[in-house]
Structures are given as C-alpha cells and as structure tokens.
Automatic annotation (TrEMBL):
UniProt source species: Sander lucioperca
Domain FCP1 homology: 83-241
Site (Transition state stabilizer): 149, 187
UniProt name for this protein: protein-serine/threonine phosphatase
Signal peptide: 1-16
Length: 257
C-alpha cells in the first residue's frame, strides 16, 4: 500500500488527516522504483527565434562565436499559443490545491478514477475543492494556464480530463518534469520557457517552489473541508496579477502583508 500511495502527493494521507499532520506524514515512499516508466511529456524543443516578437522572453540561443550563457536543451512548454499571447502564465498544482485524492473509498467522491498499477486496477477517489470550477474558468480567462503536478501522469492526466471541462490547461506537466532536490519534487520554473517575471505558481507545498519563492501564491492544503473558500478568495488577487507586466512587486506586497 505504501508503494501504491506514491501515485499522488502527499503520500500516505487519508481524508481524515488534518493539515497539521501533513508535514509529519510526508513519508518518502516516492523513492520506490515501482513507477519506472513515465510518459514523456517533455519532448518539446526550443522553437526557432520568433520573427514577430511573440515570445520575446525565451533565453538566447547560443551564438557561433563568443560564449553566451548556455540555454536549457529544451523547455517544458511549447511556444505560447496565439490565444495566450501577452498573458501571464500561471502554474497550477493539483493535489491539495485543486483536489484531494485517496484510495480510501468515500461516498461523496466527485470522480472515481481507475488507475492500473502492476496489473491491478485500483480506484482513486477524488474530491474537488469547493469553488474549483469557478476558479479554473477564471484562471483560463486571465492567464496561460499550466497544470504542474508532482503526481504521476497515469493518475493526474485522467483527473485533469475530468476536472478541466473547459480546456483551461494549455499544458500538463507531471512528476518527470520536476527536479528531485533534497527529497522533494521541485517545480523549476526556469525550465518552463517563459519569462519568469510573468510566471506565477499556485501550490500548497512551499517545497514545490523553493527555487522561485518570489513567484508563488501560497495556498492552504485542502483535504475535505467543504466550507473552504480559499480558491474563491484568491480570484481578486489573480485578477490583479493578470494585469501586471511584472508579477514580482504585487507578490512581494502579498508576502509583506
Ligand atoms: Mg499539492
């Protein structure tokens, strides 16, 4: 069971556990070699430099002469679509930010997702955080939205299919797109291929954005509280962030509050 729970994060949690127990219970069975065959969602390559200023933020490509900084071999995201041109990019976490999932059967699950593990199909019970539909639709209007989860694609991809009825997520990034750093799966925003001053990450786990804390909108971990209004309450902040050329000063004022 320990290995099975490494499908999604946090690990070994059930719906009955409180937020305060989160840190204590973050066991690291994620090291398990159980899931070894990740789907490769990273086969995006650096596009040629744009001729129309559409993606001015990509790091420079190496020059023949001289020694400019070496860009990443490839970015996690494809080129910005025309529909999203000029929008800031919001990177949205899945587990305990938008939903809570468990192998423990619950009667009020919003989705039940079958996931095959080692030849056996297990049911994953997914609860939607209150106001997630409104939040996602709004995010889709305001931003280029990317789902970025440390969970495995075989679980998170079907959940995203059910959750995102509007096609809000322009891209979905899974565990293999994270950097494993000091026992945590870190979402390295510099690998996205977007200008960092236009990137916001919303995530319940500060470890996920430890490389870029200044880009973060922290959110309380959610498990089962049906009176939670965090996503709804965050909409005005995101409306403000969507209008910023550079998100850092507004996010800094949020941290200083
Ligand atoms: Mg999370």
């Amino acid at each position: 069971m320990m290995q099975i729970t490494s499908l999604f994060l946090p690990l070994s949690l059930t719906v009955s556990q409180s937020n305060s127990s989160l840190k204590k219970h973050r066991s690291r069975s994620i090291f398990s070699p159980f899931f070894c065959c990740f789907r490769n969602y990273n086969e995006y390559h650096v596009e040629p430099p744009p001729t129309n200023n559409k993606t001015p933020s990509l790091p420079p490509l190496p020059e023949e002469n001289g020694s400019p900084p070496k860009p990443p071999a490839k970015f996690l995201l494809p080129e910005v679509s025309i529909a999203d041109y000029g929008k800031n990019c919001v990177v949205i976490d899945l587990d305990e930010t938008l939903v809570h999932s468990s192998f423990k059967p619950i009667s009020n699950a919003d989705f039940i997702v079958p996931v095959e593990i080692d030849g056996t199909v297990h049911q994953v019970y997914v609860l939607k955080r209150p106001h997630v539909d409104e939040f996602l639709q709004k995010m889709g209007e305001l931003f280029e939205c990317v789902l970025f989860t440390a969970s495995l694609a075989k679980y998170a991809d079907p959940v995203a299919d059910l959750l995102d009825q509007w096609g809000v997520f322009r891209a979905r990034l899974f565990r293999e797109s994270c950097v494993f750093h000091r026992g945590n799966y870190v979402k390295d925003l510099s690998r996205l291929g977007r200008e960092l001053s236009k990137v916001i990450i919303i995530d319940n786990s500060p470890a996920s954005y430890i490389f870029h804390p200044e880009n973060a909108v922290p959110v309380q971990s959610w498990f089962e509280d049906m009176t939670d209004t965090e996503l709804l309450d965050l909409i005005p902040l995101f409306e403000g962030l969507s209008k910023e050329e550079d998100v850092y000063s507004l996010l800094q004022s949020l941290r200083n509050r």
